[in-house]
Amino acid sequence: MEYIDLHAHMVSRTTDDYRAMAMSGCVAVTEPAFWAGYDRPGVDAFIDYFNRLTDFEPKRAATYGIAHFTWMCLNPKEAENRELTRQVLEVIPRYLELPTVLGIGEIGLNRVTKNELAGFKDHVDLAMEYEQLIHIHTPHLEDKWKGTKVIVETLAADSRIEPHRVMVDHAEEHTVDMILDNGFWTGLTLYPVTKVSPARAVDVIETRGPDRICVAAACDWGESRPLAVPEFIMEMRRRGHPDSLIRRVVYENPIGFLGQSPNFRLPDRERSGGEREARDRAVAV
User: Fold this and answer.
1) For residues 75 and 109, is the Cβ–Cβ distance under 8 A?
2) Rounded to whole angstroms, what are the CA distances from 262 to 30, 148, 159, 276?
3) What is the spatial distance between Cα 268 and Cα 156, in angstroms, rounded to a whole number?
4) pLDDT tens digits for 182-212?
5) What is the per-residue burial (b if ≥16 Cβ within 10 Å, else e) of 101-129?
């Protein structure tokens, strides 16, 4: 089954992972900007990173027939440095003009500090100024509920925000209702240790239904699985769910959200009309 992995940090993965993903049905990935495992020393390091996301990775993915898209931001873990945040925000607009950039992300909160929240709001302002989609990172583990609540309340209080143009990612069972009930899209991250397992993700689909929910591997340099979405597909089939429902979650829903960006294109599949229907549904739900 064809699928789109809406969140994959491919700069940290091998070319063999692209090959395995392509053979398992992946037709597109989107790669949010993220923490490198260390705090970058200055804006030049971000420029080098952004150049790789917008040049090298699309070429590497294309070798295996996978469309690669990306998002631009300074990660919440590095937002404690307000001067660095300002410098990075100044260079991001030049990348928003490139054909594979979908918006601002993954922004959000890590430890829910004052500076992180200020950086989050700065990125939201940038997204509004340039009419960009927003992809949001919610905190890990013990800060999950608190951070998600602050993010949702901050966005809900901003009259400029159109909820259907925002993806609040890394949801879990105790935060998914909060996100969806406020009209945002949400993502379930299929991690083997933290986040949610494929089985838990299927539980959420069975409880909430498929509207405005996507799943993704979010594979990076830690313990993660680039083939997590096919594992989710297998679990859905094991429980007897029809392929039409599975396809909606792993293919049509990502198109519904991502297709709101004029830069998101799957040229070989436009003839089917499915992309247009999914995009229309994104605004309607």
Assistant:
1) no
2) 14, 28, 23, 12
3) 37
4) 999 999 999 877 789 999 999 999 999 999 9
5) bbbbbbbbbbebeeebbebbebbbebbee
This prediction's pTM: 0.94
Q: Whose CA is closest to 108, among 69, 142, 139?
A: 139
Helix %, strand %, coil % for the chain, to 5? Answer: 50, 15, 35
Length of the chain counted residue by residue: 285
Residues 106 and 76: their CA atoms lie apart, in Å, by 8
Q: Which residue, among 127, 35, 48, has the nearest Cα to 76 in the 3D structure? A: 35
What's residue 94's pLDDT?
98
In which domain, by residue range, is 35 found?
A: 3-284
CATH of the domain at 253: 3.20.20.140
Count of structural domains within the chain: 1
**Helix (H) or strand (E) segment spanning residue 4:** strand 3-5
Contact 144, 150 (CB under 8 A): no
Beta 185-189 vs 3-5: how paired, if at all? unpaired
> In the beta sheet, which residues pair with residue 4?
28
97 contacts: CB under 8 Å, gap ≥ 6: none
Using pLDDT thresholds of 50, 70 and 90, give the confidence band for residue 283.
low
DSSP states of 99-133 as a string?
TTEEEEEEEE-SS--HHHHHHHHHHHHHHHHTT-E
pLDDT in tens, 11-61: 999 999 999 999 999 999 999 999 998 999 999 999 999 999 999 999 999
